[in-house]
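Reminder to self: tokens first, then the designed residues, so the page reads top to bottom the way the pipeline ran.
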């Protein structure tokens, strides 16, 4: 943080104008300074690229600090204030700086160096400096404005039909809404420390990023709360929540944990807060890095526009995450809580450089939610989450030509689909399965330590894993992250009695084209012989393999990928006797699920009886709720957490 260094007239030409009035015309692109059209050359955070491909924009200046000082008007649903940006040119002197500013009504600009002019459009604010700004020298510009935000900052007030005692506002930055309430360089390849100062009626609370510096009530009965986020983060993670809230408090080590809820929902708020501390404990141990920020708050929002949003140190959540005691056994906030908190490391501490690499945020949040479920409720719960993701969301999209890292989107929201979330999660699960838990954890820790407080691309993650493991992972990332689709595998088994050999044939039967090639898949064939498992590791990398495995006796069961480590549609047509054996394998929940699914498609008497027994008595609820002939996941459709 820097104090504003006022420009004094003796330093520069007296003709320079320090404070200039706003330009009235909207959609203005012609520079009043030199008469040229700079709309393309200087667009601040507009994604660049030919052929419709999207890339992060160049950074002309390094934005070091953003100080936002605002006063909301709850009755008018407007906001007014001053945002002060501190920035310095990165590699060459800069005469103009363009900021993202969505329909901000700018009334005044002050600068620490002489400003010649500025150009305001509906989407951008271009600052024209009297002389080029030298490389590396900090400049401060204070922009005073008002706004009636249609995005970015939202009100929930009695005028909109909400209970008066629940009145609140919140901000939503992702993907590009932040400039609707403060001017900034709005792209995740830029990070700044931030400050939020907000003045509200004294009965309200104000929550924002980082640590609270002060909370004072003035003579007019207005409260001003001052927050500082002193580790840099992306502009889309800046958040302000203000209004009437009920608060619950907890603590993990010295990290304050709070849960803010609408007063009318406060009665049941504790249900949705109950896992937060244990999730943080688990993540610190699993990730190998302490919670990287000052505190962790969650706030419910009435009619939130998604499930949750992982703003740095202040997650916003849909109010529907609060559930009453009566529904507790069928409803839980656990997954949403775990998803958003995982983002504090993956998304906030390291942030995808552009939306093409979004899976580095969402794949991690999805996978660590499964890891927490496994930690809390056991391995079956984790595998069942992976199963539902695979069967219900990823494998049905096997023919999609879009890879996880994809630049051909029109709107960044198109990236927030099955590729970033469950497929990204599966990529991590396959890495963990192939490297082993310890090496995987070492890779994750290395990735965070090398890239903390900066933006990341997939190559950063790959490099971290390669450095700790010595493995070359180009093929792995090419096929799963930069290539599209998922493998379809046809598996067949035959017992060669005379030779005492099991023959397992594996074919890759998916369509191979420019987007999707043959996959390299290390996995295991498991034979149950005389009640004992015999594991045979294999690597599939050709169109067809014949694996001959010598065994003492004919196996009673053959399993392909018994540890559930491969994202693939597996068609394994095995003898009925084996399917019945598999349906009763107590330590193999995924095997039982698969067997139930196979039997559900048959209509003979024996299958129906066996399935009936399973649906009534299986030890795991996911198997019990498996329905005959169901091909879709039984997972309920819910709004995605962000
Ligand atoms: Zn110009
Ligand atoms: Zn998310």
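Designed residues (642 positions):
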């Amino acid at each position: 943080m820097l104090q504003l260094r006022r420009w004094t007239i003796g330093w520069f030409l007296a003709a320079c104008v320090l404070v200039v009035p706003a330009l009235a015309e909207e959609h203005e692109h012609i520079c009043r300074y030199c008469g040229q059209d700079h709309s393309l050359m200087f667009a601040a955070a507009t994604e660049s690229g030919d052929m419709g491909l999207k890339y992060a924009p160049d950074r002309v200046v390094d934005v070091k600090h953003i100080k936002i000082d605002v006063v909301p008007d709850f009755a008018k649903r407007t906001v007014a204030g001053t945002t002060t940006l501190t920035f310095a040119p990165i590699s060459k002197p800069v005469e103009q700086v363009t900021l993202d500013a969505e329909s901000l009504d700018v009334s005044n600009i002050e600068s620490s160096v002489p400003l010649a002019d500025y150009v305001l459009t509906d989407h951008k604010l271009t600052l024209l400096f009297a002389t080029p700004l030298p490389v590396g020298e900090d400049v401060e510009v204070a922009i005073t404005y008002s706004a009636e935000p249609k995005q970015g900052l939202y009100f929930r007030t009695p005028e909109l039909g909400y209970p008066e005692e629940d009145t609140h506002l919140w901000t939503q930055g992702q993907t590009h809404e932040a400039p609707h309430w403060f001017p900034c360089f709005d792209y995740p390849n830029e990070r700044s420390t931030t400050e939020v100062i907000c003045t509200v009626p004294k009965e309200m609370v104000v929550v924002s990023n980082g640590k609270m510096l002060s909370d004072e009530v003035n003579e007019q009965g207005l409260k001003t709360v001052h927050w500082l986020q002193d580790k840099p983060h992306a502009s889309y993670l800046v958040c302000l929540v203000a209004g009437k809230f009920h608060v619950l408090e907890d603590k993990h080590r010295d990290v304050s944990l709070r849960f803010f809820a609408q007063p009318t929902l406060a009665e049941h708020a504790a249900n949705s807060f109950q896992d937060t501390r244990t999730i943080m404990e688990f993540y610190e141990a699993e990730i190998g890095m302490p919670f990287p920020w000052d505190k962790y708050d969650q706030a419910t929002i009435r009619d939130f526009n998604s499930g949750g949003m992982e703003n740095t140190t202040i997650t916003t959540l849909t109010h529907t995450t609060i559930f009453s005691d009566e529904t507790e056994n069928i409803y839980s906030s656990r997954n949403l809580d775990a998803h958003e908190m995982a983002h504090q490391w993956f998304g906030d501490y390291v942030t995808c450089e552009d939306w093409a690499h979004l899976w580095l945020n969402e794949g991690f949040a999805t996978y660590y939610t499964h890891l927490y479920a496994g930690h809390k409720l056991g391995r079956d719960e984790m595998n069942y989450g992976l199963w539902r993701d695979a069967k219900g969301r990823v494998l049905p999209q096997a023919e999609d030509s879009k890879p996880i890292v994809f630049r051909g989107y029109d709107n960044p929201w198109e990236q927030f689909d099955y590729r970033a979330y469950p497929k990204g999660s599966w990529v991590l699960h396959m890495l963990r399965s192939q490297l082993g838990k310890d090496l995987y954890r070492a890779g994750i820790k290395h990735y965070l330590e090398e890239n903390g407080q900066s933006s990341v691309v997939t190559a950063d993650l790959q490099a971290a894993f390669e450095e700790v493991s010595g493995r070359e992972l180009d093929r792995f990332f090419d096929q799963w992250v930069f290539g599209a689709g998922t493998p379809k595998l046809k598996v067949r088994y035959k017992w060669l009695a005379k030779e005492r050999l099991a023959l397992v044939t594996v074919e890759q039967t998916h369509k191979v084209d420019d987007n999707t090639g043959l996959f390299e898949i290390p996995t295991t064939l498991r034979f149950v012989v005389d009640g004992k498992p015999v594991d045979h590791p294999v690597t599939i990398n050709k169109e067809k393999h014949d694996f001959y495995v010598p065994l003492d006796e004919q196996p009673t069961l053959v399993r392909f990928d018994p540890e559930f480590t491969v994202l693939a549609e597996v068609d394994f047509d095995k003898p009925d006797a084996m399917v019945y054996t598999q349906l009763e394998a107590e330590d193999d929940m995924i095997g039982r699920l698969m067997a139930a699914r196979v039997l559900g498609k048959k209509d003979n008497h024996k299958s129906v009886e066996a399935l009936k027994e399973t649906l009534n008595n299986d030890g795991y609820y996911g198997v019990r709720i498996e329905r005959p002939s169901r091909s879709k996941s039984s997972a309920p459709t819910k709004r995605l957490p962000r």
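The pocket of zinc ion (ligand 2) is lined by residues 339, 343, 362, 365, 641-642 (CB under 6 Å).
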